[in-house]
Design a protein that fits this description.
The structure is a single chain. The protein is mainly alpha-helical and about 650 residues long. It has 28 helices and 5 strands. The protein has helices at about 5-30, 35-60, 65-90, 105-130, 145-155, 180-190, 195-205, 205-220, 225-240, 240-250, 250-260, 260-275, 275-295, 295-315, 320-335, 340-350, 365-370, 385-395, 405-420, 425-430, 440-470, 475, 490-505, 515-520, 540-550, 570-575, 590-595, 605-615, and strands at about 555-560, 575, 615-620, 645-650, 655-660. It has a 5-stranded mixed sheet. α26 (about 570-575) links the parallel β1 (about 555-560) and β2 (about 575). It starts with 6 loop residues before the first helix and ends with a strand.
């Protein structure tokens, strides 16, 4: 359900996000020596890196996180990177000229690839806007309320620590969560003045475009053809199992980590091919950037790129011990930079928060079919991408330096099948903890190399088509003097690529935008089957929350239902709810006791004491539930007519009571 922001505010919020996404990271990447597609591809990752480091370290120093301090940290990091690179150049440790790709692209090729990235971004915008049904629609999935509350918390308090935003639900101490996503979004929230749901939508809109940019930068690093890079951009903009299904599940920071994962291979290859302080710095920053985006992103990037290292050793381009000895200092530097995150992750792993596995047990053949059809259950099979995948696998020898992608696809696909079909085995549960034993997350990880193989198949079709076309009578026709009068090979190549893209657009019904919008619509309860289910956050509940913002006194907490949409109260109004998340694990003692016994307020001193400690003055209840089996807590049922409550607001789906204390 929407919050009141206009299309113009939404458009400006997207623009602000793109500036925030590219400018700080671009400055840092330039200072570190990146140029060309590597610079453009790494810029978003470095922006999240800078914000993800700034928040926790500023909190350690007792300073707030805001646009000013964030900009200062970016300038500090850029100055340090530039200083290190200049020192290394002066000492002869680093070449003076920037690295260049071994396969040159023409200016026309660069423009064509950029157009493909733009096309993928446009597809992403169409998919998300069609799915949301409005520019300020509210995400309806489990984790999105946590992300929304966290964004507003950071913006309003300046607390960029790794535990702070969790205090909205797990008070007073909070709980660890990597907050790079939320720190960047909080800057967008502050700079745009838009409502939090609008900000969430704005930073989600270009998700497939970011995926395409990362893929292009990686292909460029490994000397791939421009056609392969452009094909990778288009495939990632069309594949459901890449970014879109993660968004569909409400896994917004995880989706960010997925689309940035290919950049880990880019940074690793640069360093292994030319070990030096500047390439080591980029590798360290890339690793930390993935960690702060989402903890599993770093683990996933290591698994994704490990076959690259195996190929390097197999082809005797490097020696294992020597490579490990070079990477070790880089890893140590990265660990020091990310010390707050590593310590937070350790504390979370050893804490009381439960790890509840999904224990999936679908048939193996079903799991494999989901992989090769680029979707799980939310969309019809993406058959044409499957055809491209088959061609890419058959033609894998022509991938040259990117042949390791085949082994990466086998490895990550095998892990997905293992968790999807044998997820209940104890050792599988332990191994898959970085992904919460969730086959949907591992499907997205496996989609990265599969998308590259499908893109390779598409590029190979273009190569063969070009080869055939240049051999026709028109292309081979010569003048009477023997000069060639046919169509230039480059023009034939461009024409065949354009023809192939147009054909794919037709046979896939607009690059599967309708199918992908249906999948993403699940996150908004805006898909065909949602008419049979309750919507957790309704329009009336939003209206009640806005009214609650007008009624609440400064510093009070509002007693609310954990399972209904009122957990969004803080994100929408800035008023603290007692239940700030649907998650009922490790609930604060006062919140748990009120949920069970609040209706006994008149006669239970423990309820009265909890109300005083939390400064509860109002009760806000919505309707429906985020999950069918989650019902309203017993202490919040049948409150109408209780003598200590006065009804002050009611609509069809929500009610507000004032508490007589």
């Amino acid at each position: 359900m929407p919050t009141p922001d206009s299309i113009w505010i939404y458009a400006s919020t997207i623009g602000i996000y793109l500036v925030v996404l590219l400018l700080p990271g671009g400055l840092l990447g330039w200072a570190a020596g990146l140029r060309g597609w590597a610079l453009f591809g790494m810029a978003p990752l470095f922006t999240y890196l800078a914000a993800g480091l700034a928040g926790p370290w500023l909190a350690v120093a007792g300073l707030p996180f805001n646009p000013g301090t964030a900009a200062a940290v970016v300038l500090l990091l850029a100055a340090a990177a530039l200083g290190l690179r200049r020192l290394a150049q002066a000492r002869g440790w680093t070449p003076m000229r920037p690295d260049r790709s071994p396969v040159p692209w023409s200016r026309r090729a660069h423009l064509a690839v950029a157009a493909c990235v733009l096309l993928a971004t446009v597809l992403s915008v169409i998919v998300v806007l069609s799915a949301a049904g409005g520019t300020s629609a509210i995400f309806q999935r489990w984790d999105t309320v946590y992300h929304a509350n966290g964004i507003r918390y950071i913006a309003e308090t300046g607390d960029g620590s790794l535990f702070g935003m969790s205090t909205i639900n797990w008070y007073p101490d909070g709980s660890y969560y990597p907050n790079g996503y939320h720190l960047v979004a909080s800057l967008v929230y502050t700079l745009s003045g838009a409502a939090v749901p609008t900000v969430l939508n704005a930073v989600t809109v270009p998700v497939a475009g970011l995926f395409a940019l990362s893929m292009v930068a990686m292909v460029r690093q490994f000397g791939g053809r421009a056609v392969l890079a452009g094909s990778a951009a288009i495939v990632t903009g069309a594949a459901t199992s890449g970014a879109y299904e993660s968004v569909s599940s409400g896994l917004l920071p995880f989706a960010l980590g997925i689309v940035l994962t290919p950049l880990g291979a880019l940074a690793l290859d640069r360093f292994l091919r030319r070990p030096a302080p500047d390439t080591g710095l980029v590798l360290a920053l890339a690793g930390v950037g993935l960690l702060v985006a989402h903890t599993s992103a770093l683990v996933g990037a290591i698994l994704f790129a490990f076959p690259l290292v195996l190929q390097r050793w197999w082809r005797r381009e490097g020696k294992p011990l020597a490579d490990l000895a070079r990477v070790a200092p880089v890893g140590l530097a990265a660990a020091l930079l990310a010390a707050p995150h590593l310590l937070g992750a350790v504390s979370f792993g050893s804490g009381s928060f439960p790890y509840n596995p999904w224990a999936s047990d679908i048939p193996v053949l079903d799991a494999v079919s989901q992989l090769v059809l680029f979707r799980q259950f939310l969309t019809p099979p993406l058959v044409w991408l499957s055809v491209c995948l088959l061609i890419g696998v058959l033609m894998i020898r022509t991938l040259r330096r990117l042949r390791w992608i085949g082994l990466s696809a086998l490895l990550l696909s095998g892990i997905f099948v293992l968790v999807a079909s044998y997820g209940g085995l104890s050792w599988v549960i332990t191994f898959s903890r970085p992904w919460w034993n969730d086959r949907y997350r591992l499907m997205a990880l496996a989609a990265i190399p599969l998308c590259l193989l499908a893109a390779h198949g598409l590029a190979e079709v273009q190569r063969l088509l070009t080869k055939w076309a240049t051999g026709t009578a028109l292309a081979r026709r010569r003048t009477s003097t023997g000069a060639r009068a046919g169509v230039p090979a480059s023009a034939v190549g461009m024409a065949s690529a354009a023809l192939l893209i147009a054909a794919m657009a037709v046979v896939t019904n607009g690059f599967y935008t309708t199918a992908n919008a249906r999948a993403v619509g699940f996150a908004y309860q805006n898909w065909p089957e949602s008419r049979y289910t309750d919507i957790p956050v309704t329009r009336d509940e939003v209206a009640a929350m806005l009214r609650m913002g007008e009624l609440a006194d400064p510093g009070e907490m509002v007693l609310n239902g954990r399972s209904d949409g009122t957990a969004w109260l803080y994100a929408i109004t800035g008023v603290r709810p007692v239940a700030g998340h649907y998650d009922g694990n490790v609930v604060p003692p006062d919140a748990a006791y009120l949920a069970a016994h609040f209706r006994e307020y008149q006669h239970d001193p423990k309820v009265q004491a909890a109300v005083r400690r939390l400064n509860v003055r109002h009760v806000l209840l919505g309707s429906g539930s985020v999950l069918p089996d989650l019902t309203r807590a017993p202490g919040l049922r049948d409150l109408d007519g209780l003598p200590f409550l006065n009804e002050v607001y009611r609509n069809q789906h929500a009610v507000i009571y004032a508490l007589e204390r």
